[in-house]
């Protein structure tokens, strides 16, 4: 299902939000941050899978609200990440880091694994309220948008990757008022830590389609 193109008022609002982010962010690569709890299962899997799909088009990192600092991804998370297309070298190289204020503030788009993580990220970087989503929420909202809508919105923001992402993120955020509210379960990715392989696979089954949708949006936005 797709929505109609934004109204003139909506386009003005999109430009205003993009300009505010452009003024704050400056140039350089678009910056995306994935957030979960320990930074050893869900968010690093999201990080490496999205990086594999974008092939250098954006800078993608991850962090945890209660990170197990310097720990690698769990064995099951590593295996599933590679199975779904991530580089073995990047998967093996991951080390968990804590979600601190400078880490959150450095992002242009924050994608979390749960609503609790979304709240934690916004508390650290309140200016990013409209640029912070659970990853499944972002995918659910952006699914309404066509590639042409995304590209035209990005083109109106200029050539800066960060400004283009800001404009498209604002467009996705506007879909919150155009869709029925989702349940918490529909917007979150199950935490598989210390659980069965079956739970890891269920978590990946929720995460991977969301990653695919995020990648579609970012490819259209960043070209």
UniProtKB/TrEMBL annotation:
The keyword Hydrolase applies. The keyword Lipid metabolism does not apply. Keywords: Hydrolase, Protein phosphatase. SUPFAM superfamilies: Phosphotyrosine protein phosphatases I (SSF52788). Pfam families: LMWPc (PF01451). It comes from the Bacteria. Residues 30-217 form the Phosphotyrosine protein phosphatase I domain. Belongs to the low molecular weight phosphotyrosine protein phosphatase family. This is Low molecular weight phosphatase family protein. It comes from Microbacterium profundi.
